[in-house]
TrEMBL record:
Residues 81-178 form the Toprim domain. Keywords: DNA damage, DNA recombination, DNA repair, Metal-binding, Zinc, Zinc-finger. InterPro entries: DNA_Rcmb_RecR, Rcmb_RecR, Rcmb_RecR_Znf, TOPRIM_dom, TOPRIM_RecR. A zinc finger (C4-type) spans 58-73. GO terms for biological process: DNA recombination; DNA repair. GO terms for molecular function: DNA binding; zinc ion binding. SUPFAM superfamilies: Recombination protein RecR. NCBIfam families: recR. Belongs to the RecR family. CDD domains: TOPRIM_recR (cd01025). May play a role in DNA repair. It seems to be involved in an RecBC-independent recombinational process of DNA repair. It may act with RecF and RecO. It comes from Candidatus Roizmanbacteria bacterium RIFCSPLOWO2_01_FULL_44_13. This is Recombination protein RecR. Pfam families: RecR_C, RecR_HhH, RecR_ZnF, Toprim_4.
Amino acid sequence: MSSLPNNLKKISLFLERLPGIGEKTANRLAFYFLRLPDEDLKEFSKNIADLKTKTKFCRICFNLTEKDLCSICDDSKREGNIVTVVETVLDLLSFETGNIYNGIYHVLHGKIDPLNHVGPDDIKIKELIERVKKSPPSEIILATNPDMEGEATAIYIKNKLVELKKNFKITRLAYGLPIGANLEYADYMTLKKAIEGRNKF
């Protein structure tokens, strides 16, 4: 990389800091930008420059938006009485792919992780509790990830919601075997969750 022009080298080094990007991929992307038409490159650089100033949190669910409300909270066709709590905006996008869910969301922007000094006050749990106090839904789906920190976050939120003594249902995403999986490769915890969440057939 030492033979690259300085500005190209700087771009490549920056791209290398991105998740999943190694030195070779960073170099290829830097050269791709160099070959882009001027108008495309200007548009791209303007979008990057505006990213922080134009992007903000939805005032209701903390999804990312450029307006006061995100497109989901602003959609009157959504089922506003079902709230799914997710860790990140990327998790929300997973639900939105394929139109499998028509409720609304609450984005925590993290999970309780004491080893990394992330406590309940560092994510959007307090805002969720306040939201539920003001306008209790009929159901809250806790859709944090099925790892140790995600489980701890879900249990903490459930306990806080129960303290409100409001008349709504609290549910957790079902876990178990994915479609096409072989039992011999499943770990014991996956099998345990699959047995616990079994349905009538």
